[in-house]
User: What shape does this take?
Amino acid sequence: MSAVRTAEGLRSSERVGRSVCPTRVLDAVALGSWAAVFWFLIIADRTSLFLSSRTAWVVPTGAILLTIGFVGRVASVRSESPAPITRRGAWGVGLIVLPVIAVLALPPASLGSYAADRRSAFSSGGISTSASDIAAGDLSLLDVAGGLRSGEGVDALIERAGEDVDFTGFVTREAGAPADEFVLTRFLVSCCVADALSVSVRVVGAPPGGFKADDWVRVSGQMYPLGREVIVDSTTIEAVERPKRPYLSQ
Amino acid sequence: MAVHAPGAEARFDFGYRHAGATALALFAFGALLVVFEPTSVAAVQNFFLVFGSLLVEAIPFIALGALVSAGIEVFVPKTIFEKLASLPRPLQLPVSGLAGAAFPVCECGSVPVARRLIVKGLMPSAAVTFMLAAPVLNPIVIASTAVAYRGRDILWPMVLGRAGLGFLVAMAVGYVVSDETKEQLLKRRSEKAERHDHSHDHEEGGRGRAFFGHLSGDFVFMGRFLVIGALIAAALQTFVPQSIIGGVANTPVLNLLAMMGLAFLLSLCSESDAFVAASFVQFGVGAQLAFLVFGPMVDTKLAILYGATFRQGFFRTVVVVVTAATLIGCLWLEVVFG
Assistant: This one.
């Protein structure tokens, strides 16, 4: 018992000599602010604006890890020899917090026609181009765009020419295209927005001037593969809100 | 309440003015974003989306890397690293490379772990081999490469070529730096800062305290450089169209270099880059493979992380060796698989 009392006495005397260490407070700010971002993404349901559903698990993982780190640093924030905040240390943590401010302050958005001009088009052979996928069931935007990348896929699409399709995406405009045409685009994201690839079909029979670039629309009509692209002869086009999950995933 | 020696408050400079200036700058940044809504300009919106998404994906891996790194420092006895160091030298690099297969994190997470392994006493060349091999060889990356090329004739050349060539290239870099000591390889400032940051945690005792000291130290150290890397990568992704390299798709050697350059600019996570590589259908097997081997070892954000972690010259060595080895390996594979 006396040994226990002695140990407790030592510990309490250690605590007496400790004061809050400013640099550890700064560490806690860096960890806590990023933990807050991840919790915010979960609560506000905004993960799908940054990541694909395949990698969405990193957000709760980040939230938990960083919260553990934050709590641990707060619990050990007192030090016998506190270190002062240096200019370099303060700006370093400021740099870490900068994206936190951007994520929290900016309105929710997704990649649009600007990115469609600068990114590669989806062409992965294995995701959707198996002829059996295309031959049966509803045709998705991914089936149609991916199908064009293999001979079998094109054949399967030709078999279904003239069938009804129903696609949702945003409008992209090409210079010199007729007024009643636009390209319906959606991005496919594998991990994060940085790896987005575009998936698109050409829509004809649209009301001239009815939709501008980046408007989200739902197009119904008949699908026709033509050369290296798919045409949708539209019967109805309606303006819709940006989907909750604006990117296609695999 | 904290107790100070008499007069301690007068002498101790907390540095709160630096923190205040930083907080003020951040507040001004946030106010500018809210008031002027710069994202109404498409390019600015694109920049912030890519910047945010790169970090939302990479920060948890940095945190995981810092967690593993802190665990190694606090809970793994030094004797284990001494035993590893006593392995026959020709075995050390292959064993380190293969150990990467068991570490399923992206390249951002492997840098703090490699740094910790070196500090802890592992042979620097072995830690470097591990750091470069882990993002190419780990099972998630192999699986995502297989999914991206599923249904194509080049599935197996791509999957096995990536793993095999990545392993060899990582070992080549490890071999080139095998004469370097810890002091020659690691940036001195980082070690000094580390001692400064964490010595108190050790002095004050308690493994938990030391663990969180290392975790937060590594996170803050790597985090700031990751943000700089993501800023540059997002700017490049926003303003440099991917079609810029299309003109050299059929030019030998230049097509491989162009794809390596693109991998450097895009700074993609190794778990997703195969889908982007697969979209460059106008490029052959070798060029796509060059993208997949080079990117996880050398890219914009890694350049910043390496620069912060290792001594001057390390990044140059990595670029030269990885470029040369990838080029030779991919040319050879192009000859075999067409």
Notes: Chain A touches chain B through 95 residues (CB under 8 Å). Residues 22-43 of chain A form the longest helix (22 residues). Chain A has a mean pLDDT of 85. DSSP finds nine helices and seven strands in chain A.
